[in-house]
Amino acid sequence: VFMISINDKLKYILTFQDLDDFVKTCYSDVTFMGSRVVKSHGYSGTIKIDDLAKYFLHVVEINKDYNETQREIGKKTVRQIDRLYTGSEKERLSKNLFTRIMCVFRDWIESFGTPPANSKHSFRRTWKNQYANNILNRYSRVQCRTVFGRSPPSNPDVYKTWSKESLLNHFIDENTKLKAAN
After folding, report:
1. Rounded to 5 degrees, what angle do the CA atoms 122, 5, 42 make?
2. Which of 19, 43, 79, 171 lies in the 20 to 30 Å Cα band around 7?
3. What digits encode the pLDDT tens for the residues 142-165?
4. What gap in Å lies between CA 123 and CA 133, rounded to an integer?
5. Which phi and psi angles does 37 have, rounded to 5°?
């Protein structure tokens, strides 16, 4: 029986919905050498959880002016990826002593700070601290016009994306200033 590999499957995933459907079939594992990987029912091979999270960022980039429905699907996918990271923590506890030592060693290397972006050990912390809770809570200029019906603050050097809260505060302040001027 021939099965498509996880890496080949990812090459054809370009939308939030397709990625979410795929990630739902995934489960975490830890290799003998302590790598945190993802396996998927119906697909062969593995992929590192970090690489799956990076692929999510790729999907965000190619769909950068996503709508609110896609935003919600993306948030579900983020929670699924977080579930995989958490699952790998639990999975490592069930492994043999050597594998657990390798996991601790990899975590220890990672604890020295964020290594260079291309490092194998840098992305889990970056995902947790920067991307998981923030990336889909920001609005681009196009999204701001679509969702709120107005343009965001006009200083592009200061802002590239805006949170919903900061945009609402800006629009409230803008309306208050207009009412005061009248």
Report:
1. 110
2. 79
3. 887 788 777 776 655 444 556 666
4. 15
5. -125, 170
